Amino acid sequence: MIPRPANPQSTIRNPQSPVPPPPAILEMRGLHKRFPGVQALAGVDFSVRRGEVHALIGGNGAGKSTLIKVLTGVVPADAGTVSFEGRPWHVRSPAEAVRRGISTIYQEVNLVPTLSVAENLLLGRTRRRWYGIDWRWVRGQAADRLASLGIHIDVTRPLGDFSVGVRQMVSVARAVDTDARLIVMDEPTSSLDRGETERFFRIVQEIKARRISVVFVTHFLDQIYRVSDRITVLRNGRLVGVFEAAALPKMELIGHILGRSPQELTSAPAGREAERGPARTVLRAAGLHRRNAVESVDLEVREGRVLGLAGLLGSGRTELARLLAGADRADGGSIRMDDRPVRLRGPRDAVRIGIVMAPEDRQADGLIPDLSVRENIVLAVQRTLSRFGRVSRAAQRRIAADFAARLGIKTPHLETPVRNLSGGNQQKVILARWLACRPRVLILDEPTRGIDVGAKAEIERLVHTMCDEGLSLVFISAELDEVARLSDDVLVLRDRKPVGELHGPDVTEQAIMAAIAGERQL
C-alpha cells in the first residue's frame, strides 16, 4: 500500500489551476537593428523557456537571421536588452556565446570533413599525455557520447565519408558535448532526406529530455508541429505573436506568416477572369524529383496560360522551377515539350527548346550590374542571331530599343549601367532578355519582389499581355493573392512535395491557403 502524504494539500495541485510554465532561460526585449536601408528588427521580444523547443518562423526579410545573429554575437543590437539564465547578456562574439552556453547548428555543417568523427566531436577538448594526444581516450569518449544520442558509427573514419544527415547529427552531438544550455538550429533539416530527418528529430527529443532548450528555425510546417512547444512568428522585422503550438491551427499560422486573415479570403479577388476553356499542353512533367529538393511532381503548362506555383518559403517552388529550366538536374522523372521527350542537361538545353527563367535573385543570378541596359538585354540572344555569337552594335541597339519600348523600361539611355535602374525596371530588363529569345515557356520566380506598387501593376499587365500573345508562363510568388489573381491553374507545394491542384474558378487565395494547411488534398 502506498502511504498517504501527511498533508495532501501540499502535494496535490488543484486540477483547475494551470501548471506554471518552466522559467525562461533566454529573454530578449525591445530589440532594434538597422542595416543600410533596412530595418531588420523593430522592437522585437523573444523568450525561450528551459527545456522547450521553440520554433522561430517567418518569410523572407522577417528578421529571423538578424535575431539569431544578435543572440550569438555575430552582430550587436542597436537597442534592446538580452538576458541569459537570469543575467544580462552582452555577448561580443560567437566564441563567447559558446563559452556562455549557446551553440548554433547551421544548415551547412561547419565542421572539418577531412578530420575523423572523433576529432570533430572533441576538437579543442582532447586529453593530452606526456607523449601527446591520448587518441584511445578520444575515440572512446566520442563513441560513448554519440551512442548516448543513439548514433552508432565508426568514429575513426573521416567525417566527410558520411552523409549530410550523419554530419548534421555529429554537429548536434558536439553542441550537446560543449555543455550548451541553448542550441540554435538554423534550417538543420533542409539537406536531409526523410530517414535522416526522422533520426534527427529523435535526437532533438533526447536533447529536450536533458532540459536543453532549442530554438528551431525552419520553413517546414509539419516539422514545426512535430517538435515545437511554442512558435514565435516574425514579419517584416516585427513580432507578430507567440503561440502555443498545440493550440494554433495550421491555417492560422499560415495567416500570421503572410499577414492575412483566413476569414477574409472567402472568394477570388474581384475582376479575375473566368476559366477560358481548354488549351493545348505545351510542357508536361511526370514524376520529376531531385533528392533533398523536391519530391515527385506532375504538372502541365498550357499554351497562353499561367501555371502558378504556390507555397510558403522552403516549400520547393524555386527548386521545381530550376528543374524545369535545366538549372539543376533531376534525379528522375520526365519532361515532354509538345508531347516529345526532352532531356535537360543544363540551361542551354532548356533555352534551345524554348524554356527560359527569370530568377528570384535578379542581382545575383539575373543581371550583370556593370553592363549597360543594352548589353543585358541582348546577352542571351546573340548566339541565335549570329553564327559566331557577335551581333553589330547597331543591331543590338535596335533589339534593346524595341523591347525597352514594348515593356516600358524607363532608362536615361540604353547605355546606362543596369545597376542604376529601379528594381521594377531591372526586372523588365530581365524579361526583355528572355523575350528576345522568343521562348515557348517563361518561368517567373518572384518577379514582383522588392519593387513598388506601380511597377508591380506593370509586371502584372505584362503577364496578361504575354499570355494573350500565346506565351505560356510558370509564375511563382510568396504573395498568394498575386498567385490567385494571375494564375489559370495552381500547383500548391508544402515541405518539398505537391499537396494540391486548383483550376479555373477554384483558384482563390483561400483555397491555396487551405491546400498549404493540409485541408485540401490532391
Q: Could you tell me the radius of gyration in angstroms?
A: 27 Å
3D shape = globular
> Would you tell me the overall average pLDDT?
82
**Tally of strands:** 22
Largest sheet: 6 strands, mixed
CATH class of the largest domain: Alpha Beta
Beta-strand fraction estimate: 15-25%
Domain unit count: 3
In the CATH hierarchy, the architecture of the largest domain is 3-Layer(aba) Sandwich
CATH topology of the largest domain: Rossmann fold
Oligomer: single chain
Question: How many H/I helices?
Answer: 19
Which regions contain 5 or more consecutive residues with pLDDT less than 50?
A: 1-15, 265-274
CATH homologous superfamily identity of the largest domain: P-loop containing nucleotide triphosphate hydrolases
What is the fold's blueprint, element by element?
Elements: H1 8-11, E1 24-35, E2 38-49, E3 53-57, H2 64-71, E4 79-84, E5 87-88, H3 94-100, E6 102-105, H4 117-121, E7 128-129, E8 132-133, H5 135-147, H6 164-177, E9 182-186, H7 194-209, E10 213-217, H8 221-227, E11 230-235, E12 238-244, H9 250-258, E13 281-290, E14 294-302, E15 306-310, H10 317-324, E16 332-337, E17 340-342, H11 347-353, E18 355-358, H12 362-366, H13 373-377, H14 382-385, H15 393-407, H16 423-435, E19 441-445, H17 453-468, E20 472-476, H18 480-486, E21 489-494, E22 497-503, H19 509-517
Parallel strand pairs: 3-10, 3-11, 6-9, 9-10, 15-20, 15-21, 18-19, 19-20
Antiparallel strand pairs: 1-2, 1-4, 4-5, 7-8, 11-12, 13-14, 13-16, 16-17, 21-22
Helix pairs in contact: 6-7, 9-19, 15-16
